[in-house]
Amino acid sequence: MKKIGILHGMERTFPEAFIERVNKMGLKDIKAEPVLIDKVEQGEPSDYAVIIDRISQDVPFYRAYLKNAAIGGAAVINNPFWWSADEKFFNNALAVKLGVPVPKTVILPSHDKPTDTSDESFRNLKFPLSWEKIFEYIGWPAYMKPHAGGGWKSVYKLNNMDEFFTAYKETGQLVMMLQEEIIFEEYFRCYCLGRKYVRIMQYEPRNPHHLRYVVNGPPASEKLLKKVNDYVLQLCNALGYDFNTVELAVRNGVPYAIDFCNPAPDADVHSVGQENFEWVVEHAAKMAVERAQQQKSGADNLTWGTFITDSVSGYLKQTSGKPATKSKTAVKTKSK
């Protein structure tokens, strides 16, 4: 029997519906349940073939548990190693390399020095920064947001330099991004599951939270939707996320990727609406079952994006033909 576990916190509607949907498939060798942890021993496999992670971004203990489970062969969704390394500013840089349009963005050092640092810790940082060049590049209005944060926490809309410096002072030790505002005609929030299932949802971020999926405008053109779909797949395949949302704002017919680092996206029925909720439950269950069927005990069952796999392939190509070096330390593994 292969078990699919879901690791979650306060949310209820999605985890409960997901478990029910998987178990209603009637598969003899697969069942779903909430993850239950009573002991985490280093290097030992977990009880789960697949784990859907909805909470480790807020609980470091869970992130450590998931990395250990992955070493033991669990297919963790999303990859906890990549999730730990990723952040929004890198996402934008990768999008630029992929040719996906993104707003003009710069990263800023934290306003307050990090704990246990001093002025001498910043010998390589020119001060003051080239503020005039930064503001000229980004323009006004602009948005300032944490480079590694989620949701709408510590997000500022700024109209001029004075507002910027007032807000910047409030951010303390957070590392922030300053980003061009995209004044959009259309906006989409898209689920992407398994790097192949895409749900494009018209979205209005200026509405109250519970009304953001209620859009009264005309339907988008098929050409635009095709471009949105392609960008979503391109980004999620490069990043390696199996469960993600991508937000795109359309300006002058061009979709700009605004936010695409959401590995535990909102899937609550009360905010996304019944139709979108049914879709994400159905396709999350389908994806999890597919991964469970493909999972091989003791192997690496994680998803790695093309940014990583292409880098590894390039390295192996460069080193092929060179004599191999022998390691002085032999690592023995045990099977259970």
Task: Tell me what you see in this structure.
The chain is α/β, with parallel strands linked by helices and 336 residues long. It has 3 domains: 1-78 and 272-299, Rossmann fold, CATH 3.40.50.11950; 87-101 and 182-262, D-amino Acid Aminotransferase, Chain A, domain 1 (2-Layer Sandwich); 104-180, 2-Layer Sandwich (Dna Ligase, domain 1), CATH 3.30.1490. The chain has 10 helices and 12 strands. It has helices at 13-24, 60-71, 80-85, 88-98, 131-138, 161-170, 222-239, 269-272, 274-294, 306-319, and strands at residues 2-7, 30-34, 50-53, 75-77, 105-108, 142-146, 156-158, 176-180, 186-193, 197-202, 243-251, 254-259. It has a 4-stranded parallel β-sheet, sandwiched between helices. Helix 4 (88-98) crosses helix 7 (222-239). The protein is globular and about 65 Å long.
Summarize the structure.
With 336 residues, this protein is α/β, with parallel strands linked by helices. It is built from ten helices and twelve strands.
Radius of gyration: 22 Å
**CATH top-level class of the largest domain:** Alpha Beta
Instruction: Identify the overall geometry.
Output: globular
Mean pLDDT: 93
